[in-house]
Amino acid sequence: MTFSELIEKKKHKIELSNAEIEWLISNYVKGVVTDYQFSAMAMAIYFNGMTNRETAALTTAYVNSGKTYDVSKVQGFKADKHSTGGVGDKTSLVFSPLVASYGIKVCKLSGRGLGQTGGTIDKLETFPGWQSELTNDEFIKVVNEVGMSLIAQSNDVVPADKKIYALRDVTGTVDSMPLIAASIMSKKLIIENDGLILDVKTGDGAFMKTVEQAEDLANRMIGIGREHGRKIAVLITDMNKPLGKAIGNAIEVKEAWDALHGKGPQDFNELVATAVGVTLLQAKIFDDLKTAKKDVYKKMQSGEAAHFFKEFVIAQHGDWSVMENYDQVFTNKHKIEIKTKTKGFVKYNQAEGLGLLSMHLGAGRQTKEESIDHAAGIYLNKGFGEAVEVGETIMTLYTNKEINPEWEQQAYETFTIVEKQPKEEVIIKIISD
Ligand code: URA
């Protein structure tokens, strides 16, 4: 087998065999296939696509490129949830303790944020000392003792994805459906969980700009799951506006903590209750979603699942005291209030703009090397659809950087004030295998 034969086949839309895909990926990881050769292949895949069988084989080759986690010593049903990335998305921080409170174990690999999207690992690093990388044994210990553990992808986990994602980033091939599907699913398959929820975001602040694209990605990932014997449910959810009211890191952790005590914003609560509810169906704890969600809402209201989150942070060596002294620890030099000029109802329509603004305030990174300021971010004093009077504060920007005079204008561009109260629909569709 030579690389030239494989690129010729893909160029002429001839399916690659499983063995050919395995050869291609293992030799690219080893450096036998060069970056310029693999760039040509990525572009051929971008234009000619991959069948479901090819995409599943690609995912397997990714998984085989590195270490997997052995969770056979975890007792009970094991669950995971993954989001394709959005603005203000702190769902995993509330989903995991709630799921754990039902005796289900959460064994989860999470990511960092890039560009307008936030990452769960960055948010958890709000707690000084919190460890994102654990050995297999440490991971199992935290899961068994606390009920949940979230960890970061270390260098030896799916190295093929790390190398190929970096190449895609600079060769215009990030938005290839089979490459996205294999990238996401490989990182889910390395932990053998019993249930998996995928939150595929669609809209301005998401990768998938249209519902059709989101459904296409969802079906491909369900197909990969089927080939690997995994049951998956997909939530297609709205990302034209941010999720909840907090955008940043510490500020999102605080919102998550509030949601665990029944004080979360309504759109966020609904997404969490649905994701947990679907997991409860997968674990056969409930058999209809309506009853499951009702029970989850009750748990959010009572605050009974919150302690799982605190115990998990402490078990991974995080300093919990920062949450108790939030206002003293997470200080900002500047607080910019954005006020309304007209009366009406708030309609956020640029989630991406808000995510980018939060990044510029210091809460996110433009390149993987940049560090972030956990205190920076945005709070939406008025949520989507809320009534406002002239002169009321719509949102507050928090930063420790020098003020850029363009920020205010950028903030104004992310919303309009409309006469009729706009409706919000966070869950667009649920697709279950
Ligand atoms: N998230 C991933 O992990 N991979 C992609 O390719 C896109 C989004």
UniProtKB/TrEMBL annotation:
GO molecular function, one term: thymidine phosphorylase activity
Full protein name: Thymidine phosphorylase
Taxonomic superkingdom: Bacteria
Quaternary structure note: Homodimer.
Organism: Williamsoniiplasma somnilux
Keyword terms of this UniProt record: Glycosyltransferase, Transferase
One of the Pfam families matching this protein, by short name: Glycos_trans_3N
Transferase as UniProt keyword: yes
The keyword Ubl conjugation belongs to this UniProt entry's keyword annotation: no
Domain (Pyrimidine nucleoside phosphorylase C-terminal) ranges: 345-418
GO cellular component: a single term: cytosol
